[in-house]
Design a protein that fits this description.
alpha/beta; TIM Barrel; globular
């Protein structure tokens, strides 16, 4: 099957002080997504920022950003319900009421760098059920081995139906390290019909993306995951990182999915 490339333009951590090309306003994010779509991205993974550049779950900001993206290009939209460490779960979960095609689902609480990422089990179950009611496809975010077990329990409980979709996130301080062994361990335990991608944070991004593609996974690229195009060279934007991921897939003789092909693989049509 063709490889699905997702662009993650912004994330919850980095600022323009880290990389001036990081998009933060709705207009900047929409422009970055449109550029990434032109480079081959079929899915946009979205975080939102307020006027001060801080992570926000403000519905009006999210709605405006998504509207601008839809006006600019036909890319598939996935909203992050992770938002940022300082945003309460009760605020974050309301983003699914916008009925995006997809949204992330974080199954477990964890240490995250110097902070704490809170996802209480009963709240996670409630959000999974609400996403099911609204027809929003969940992408389950796995930061460590036990997170996969939590996701499998959600599937067993009927809170996740259809073809399960996973992001394996490695390299966050507090989660599993970004190593080939950790990636292989998790991939071997995924359900047979799973759609998945690896997200390696920082230095291991390119290498583990290549390994993930070779193992049959999809790829994510963007300034949320790495601010650098190569050692010592800041990326000039999200488009360059998507272009690199597309080139990596094609160097492995893998076709890159367009929006319709991605939607079909993900069970959205």
């Amino acid at each position: 099957m063709p490889v699905i490339i997702t662009v993650a333009t912004t994330g919850p951590i980095a600022s323009k002080a880290d990389n001036p090309s990081l998009p933060t306003s709705p207009e900047e994010i929409a422009a970055a997504v449109s550029e990434a779509h032109g480079e081959g991205a079929a899915v946009a993974h979205l975080h939102f920022r307020d006027g001060e550049g801080r992570p926000t779950a403000d519905i009006a900001t999210a709605e405006r950003t998504v509207s601008l993206i839809k006006d600019a290009c036909p890319i598939l939209v996935q909203i992050s319900t992770g938002v940022g460490l300082g945003v309460a779960f009760s605020e974050r979960e309301r983003l699914v009421e916008l009925r995006p095609q997809m949204a992330t689902l974080n199954p477990c609480s964890m240490s995250f760098g110097d902070g704490e990422f809170r996802n209480p089990p009963n709240d996670v179950r409630r959000l999974a059920g609400r996403m099911q009611e609204l027809g929003v496809k969940p992408e389950m975010e796995i930061y460590d081995t036990g997170h996969l077990d939590a996701c499998l329990r959600l599937i067993d409980e009927g809170l996740i139906t259809g073809r399960p979709q996973f992001s394996i996130v490695l390299g966050v301080q507090g989660g599993a390290a970004a190593t080939p062994a950790n990636l292989l361990n998790l991939v071997q335990r995924l359900p047979d019909n799973a759609v998945w991608q690896v997200i390696a944070i920082g230095r291991a991004n390119l290498q583990l993306t290549a390994i993930g593609l070779a193992l049959g996974g999809n790829a994510r690229a963007g300034l949320e995951d790495t601010l650098f195009l190569r050692r010592g060279e800041l990326s000039p934007g999200n488009g360059a990182l998507v272009r690199r991921a597309v080139g990596l897939a094609r160097s492995l003789d893998l076709a890159v999915a367009n929006v319709d092909e991605a939607a079909s693989q993900l069970g959205l049509i």
